[in-house]
Fold these 3 entries.
Entry 1:
Amino acid sequence: MHITEILFWFLTSLSLFSALMVVFSSNPVYSVLWLILVFFTISGHYILMNAQFLAIVNMIVYAGAIMVLFLFVIMFMNMNKESEPQKSNWLRLAAAVSGGSLMLILVAALKDNGGFINSLRGEGNIGLIKNLGKVLFTQYVVPFEISSILFLSAMVGAVVLAKKEKSPVVS
């Protein structure tokens, strides 16, 4: 076995174990922490497929910002065993059937094209950040600059709207 295959299977097994722990954890905070580990292992898969930009964006956006938001909401709601709604057995059965159907579809889709392992063996420069930057700043420089002006005007507008006006003191 090649080292990338070993790393792929290790990340895959860790992803599956962490995803199962997300579902089966009784504490919602632990569930979110397991989900963060799932996002990191998915970023590892992106790196194995030579998509470094997607890996970094996945870590920053999902494992960073979204999970902090999830943790904040869970801690703000102060959920415990008594306040959590109980799930019926029918709902659990429906979740198991839909998850099994999704797994069956994924296995059928991967059977025909050889799976992920064949994509790991390809040596290419498609996902490199260097190539993305080269295309972004040569072919798409005008739309990139227009979008930066749009984001700047949105930030200025948010600051203007959020700024409180001081009312005059009436005596």
Entry 2:
Amino acid sequence: MKNICEWSNCNNEGKFKAPAEKDNSKNFKWLCEEHIKLFNKNWNYFEGMSQDQIEKFLKSDLTWHRPTQKFGSVDNYFNILWNNALDDKFNIFKEDSSVNVKKRKLCEKDKDAFRIMDLELGADWSAIQKKFKTLVKKFHPDKHSGSKKYEDKLKKITLAYSHLKMIMITK
């Protein structure tokens, strides 16, 4: 099925899509090659906008016209993710699990994990969580201009935390 050019008084085949409106909608019109060239030559998205409106549009375009929040804001995605990461909704890491860790004989890797996080051997889960959150805030590379030293330190802390998490799961 062939489309007819939507330019007035043109009966050529419309092979090219042109936006029907400036609102970024999916509405378009079909134009022939001759008229699409004319359309493109005369197209000015910002026509009828003030300089202030154009600048606001361009600034908004940097974030794909989506609202942004400061990192510390309550509804920031990463803030929500962080708060949920340490939330124990299924009570996997109940306080009583730390008793089992104290009774259990710790291997050298277990002891290293406690040392890396600067915790007492056999610390309970809530103490591990609090310390991890504190250390992440302290050593996060974004707080230190992306320093490789802090990135490596944070990796060690995260690995130690993951190891201690596994200790708490396996009773």
Entry 3:
Amino acid sequence: MRLGELERAVMNELWTRPQGALARELAEALPSQPAVTTVLTILDRLARKELVRRERTGRAHRYFAVHSKEAHAADAMRLALGQAGDRELALTHFLDVVDPEDVAALRRLLQGIEGED
């Protein structure tokens, strides 16, 4: 799922805060210092995308990332692969451009999966 620039900035901030954050705290932490109402709009959008959840804290809400940054990245990769016409060709192109250390990590992970069978 693609995120806009401000959505990504809010998510990046939430991923560093397992205790969650108020909209005001997020607005203050973002480099662009958007209005709290803007951050609330972004948080509402992210909640509709099921990326954040909120809990009532007094008169405000505390927002939490639903999944880790790594789980979000994995889901984005899965969605992108699902949109490829030729999945094997897409994977081949991916392996051509990814860092060699990542290729080695994938190889180790796949060998671990094959060893479980």
